[in-house]
Amino acid sequence: MSKHETVTAASTTETKEIEEVITDAIQYAKKHGADHVEISARNDKGFSVSARLGDIETLEHHNQRALAVTVYRGKAKGSANCNDIRSSAINDVIDAALGMASFTAEDEASGLADAELMATNYPELDLDQPWGIQPDQALQIAMQCEQTARADERIVNSEGASVSTIRSEAIYANSHDFLGRYTSTRHSISCSVVAADKQGMQRDYWYSVARDADELDAVDIIGLKARERTLRRLNARSLSTCEVPVLFEPNVARSILGHFFSAINGGSLYRDASFLTDSLGQKIFPEWLSISEDPHIKTALASSPFDAEGVRTQARDIVSDGVLQGYILASYSARKLGMTTTGNSGGIHNIRLPESEYSQDDLIKQMGNGVLVTELIGNGVNPVTGDYSRGAAGFWVENGEIQYPVQEITIAGNLKEMFQRIKAIGNDVDTCGGIHLGSMLMDQLTVAGSAE
């Protein structure tokens, strides 16, 4: 039997024991006064190591269990949690939750997701890809990565390189007689170094994250990118305030689109705390841009067969031809809005944009004169008005070519207008997260600088 099979067999036995405990706990809760009950359990196992300046810095083993119980007495709700999965401990948690529900005001929007929405038949997504690596091997990988990143005399310090591997088992059950489970893995390698010149020091990093370790970038590639990205920031200047096109690299473009998803999240909408309240059916983006969600991409980092309420996930169009087609809803926020959950309790799943023929170099040439943003700093975003102002660093582009690095600049605008000003998306798609996105080119944003 291989190590992978041994790990799987052992975890399967443990999972079945947890399932039996949870099933008994639901019956206990109903017997003691709960009209409905839901229980979620998670078991994370793995380790992370980090090396700095050629020596081991940290080694952490992870073996964490978490269990959360929510009970409903009518429309009154009580919740409690623990990290002990023994029946006696779970029963104590249920008793505590029931006690809380006795003193909680009823809320007509509370309750389990509707029974007919449960994921009674969900796909296998190949999310469980264990990495048969030991801590000493991971440490060697981290040291090799950092060594590659430091292979230039201008690299004067390091924030270290790290390697981590986590295997998570998730179980959700409720009194609709639903019990679902799946196991997933997440592996990563990252490195951050510091360079210096007469003007001062600059820091940058690179990383790779995947379900399957075979899909991680090569160790030397990660170290090389960390080094190159850091060195290219040396001799940075500021800019005079101007209005120019701005190109956001994938890792920062993701944050721009993240503000859109926060704005169409049900929690923000029913509280009337979003600049996109009542925007369903309205044109938010240019007509050429569509945005879809696909929770069932095999091995993808944001794939999930069901959401945190047991609701089946499904592919859908969120934006079609620039027009907003749907919100991001869990059961509670959906009921507050008089709508139906979209299966997004717990977050979004694999957001995708149209395929592009443009590389980042193509977009730089298309931009002409402007700024390539590689880092955003601070959190100057007003979720109610959409006003946007964040510090940034990157590169000044002139005649379609990078000229020099820039720092101490601010990108300012309003997100509603910024979304409309998206001109193109690159094919350099970064899949290390829930939003799969390439470089994003926007037309005519305000770039504030401190140069005379």
Summarize this entry quickly.
The chain is α+β, with helices and mostly antiparallel strands.
Would you give an account of this structure?
By secondary structure, the protein is an alpha+beta fold. The chain folds into 2 domains: 3-229, PmbA/TldD superfamily (PmbA/TldD fold), CATH 3.30.2290.10; 236-452, no CATH class. It contains 9 helices and 17 strands. It has helices spanning 3-31, 87-102, 135-149, 219-231, 250-263, 266-270, 331-336, 360-367, 415-420; strands spanning 36-52, 55-73, 76-82, 155-174, 178-197, 200-210, 242-248, 291-293, 316-320, 323-324, 351-352, 370-377, 387-398, 401-414, 422-425, 435-436, 440-448. The strands form 3 sheets. The protein has a 6-stranded antiparallel β-sheet with strand order 3-2-1-4-5-6.
Assign the structural class, choosing from mainly alpha, mainly beta, alpha/beta, alpha+beta, or little secondary structure.
alpha+beta
Give the domain tally.
2
User: In what order do the strands lie side by side in the largest sheet?
Assistant: 3-2-1-4-5-6
Q: Main sheet? A: 6 strands, antiparallel
**What is the global morphology?**
globular
Termini separation comes to 69 Å
Q: Strand content of the residues, in percent? A: 35-45%
> What value does the Rg take, in angstroms?
24 Å
CATH first level of the largest domain: Alpha Beta
pLDDT < 50 runs, ≥5 residues: none
CATH architecture of the largest domain: 2-Layer Sandwich
